[in-house]
Design brief:
Peroxisomal Thiolase, Chain A, domain 1; five-stranded mixed β-sheet; 3-oxoacyl-[acyl-carrier-protein] synthase activity; FabH; binds oxa(dethia)-CoA; lipid biosynthesis; acyltransferase
Length: about 325
């Protein structure tokens, strides 16, 4: 049976220049490099400049993804940005990116599912591309989480960083099997009863301020391992594959202990797990495309490989996606 699938044909990412090490943080908050590395695996994070909004990071990643796909801005007909740190309350970062890239009139909007945003945005774009509504889509995860930090709260401010990653999606014809190139299966989940575990204590319709990130870290941790494993199992079932068929596991990069816990629960070979949490920290919706790009650039992930993405974050939201590159 012939089917149209959305396939990743280009990828790019961008990290702001400034690197903040754990030792840098220990100068002004009661923490240590040892504690952060032992509990999270994080060694450093990148930090955007004050005059460098999220859209600037997104544009840099998008340009690289378009070049990698052999496309120009005139080809782009859909831009979706997954972000929880927009430049402004509105317009969408996607509209600003469209203007900064110089792309013509098309479809542009943001998806807000916090750390799960990139997986959610991919599934939305997949719908457009697979139905013939987009021939060249940019899906971008871009975040400046450092701008949501309370720098006096050691339980959160050591965990997050800034960055952006982007993919180009184009239609590809397949046979309806897991040998096809492109998106093969998704599982998306949200449980709004747990909003109080991870949230920002501000917003336009409540405080009128941006607010700061608040998290009950160990409770989120407990949910993460169980929820992520269930989402992965469901995405593999939707793609008609087994865990053993997965060449590379590219998880959301929140905590090395969560990545390991999920991998162990599913019996994943740790040599197949991509981890960038040590150098990027948690970049929310940007973490998956940043990690995917890093592993493609260093030659580990290759065209034709079976990739499993997963994420979990505020909402609580979580989700997974199986795709063949
Ligand atoms: O991407 C969105 C999803 N988010 C996540 O997945 C994050 C999930 N949670 C986590 O990654 C972990 O729960 C944390 C890394 C946030 C915390 O690790 P933990 O092992 O769960 O530690 P804890 O919260 O139970 O705290 C243990 C101790 C506490 O001290 P007491 O009460 O035992 O005296 C904390 O006050 O560690 C203390 N602590 C710190 N100490 C030094 C908390 N943060 C720090 C810190 N430096 N930065």
């Amino acid at each position: 049976m012939s089917v149209t699938r959305s396939a990743v044909t280009g990828i790019g990412s961008y990290l702001p220049e400034q690197i903040v090490t754990n030792a840098d943080l220990a100068k002004f908050v009661d923490t240590s490099d040892e504690w952060i590395q032992e509990r999270t695996g994080i060694k450093q994070r990148h930090k955007a400049r004050d005059d460098q909004p999220t859209s600037d990071l997104a544009v840099e990643a998008a340009k690289k993804a378009l070049a990698d796909a052999g496309k120009t801005v005139t080809d782009v007909d859909l831009i979706i940005v997954a972000t929880t740190t927009p430049d402004m309350t509105f317009p969408a970062v996607a509209s600003i990116v469209q203007a900064k890239l110089g792309a013509g009139v098309g479809i542009a909007f943001d998806v807000q599912a916090v750390c799960s945003g990139f997986v959610y945005a991919l599934s939305v774009a997949d719908g457009f591309v697979a139905r013939g509504l987009s021939k060249c889509a940019l899906v971008i995860g871009a975040e400046e989480m450092t701008k949501l930090m309370d720098w006096t709260d050691r339980t959160t401010c050591v965990l997050f960083g800034d960055g952006a990653g982007a993919v180009v999606l184009e239609p590809r014809e397949g046979q309806g099997t897991s040998d096809d190139q492109g998106m093969l299966g998704f599982a998306l989940r949200a449980d709004g009863s747990k909003t109080d575990l991870l949230y920002v204590d501000g917003g336009p319709s409540t405080t009128g301020t941006v607010g700061h990130l608040r998290m009950a870290g160990n409770q989120v941790f407990r949910h993460a391992v169980v929820n992520i494993a269930e989402g992965i199992t469901a995405a593999c079932a939707a793609a008609n594959i087994e865990i053993a068929d997965v060449d590379w596991f590219v998880p959301h990069q929140a905590n090395q202990r969560i990545i390991k816990g999920v991998g162990d629960r599913l019996g994943l070979d740790e040599n197949k797990v991509i981890s960038t949490v040590a150098t990027h920290a948690n970049t929310s919706a940007a973490s998956i495309p940043l990690a995917l790009d890093a592993a493609i650039q260093d030659g580990r992930i290759k065209k034709g490989d079976m990739i499993l993405l997963e994420a979990m974050g505020g909402g609580l939201t979580w989700g997974a996606c199986a795709l063949r590159l």
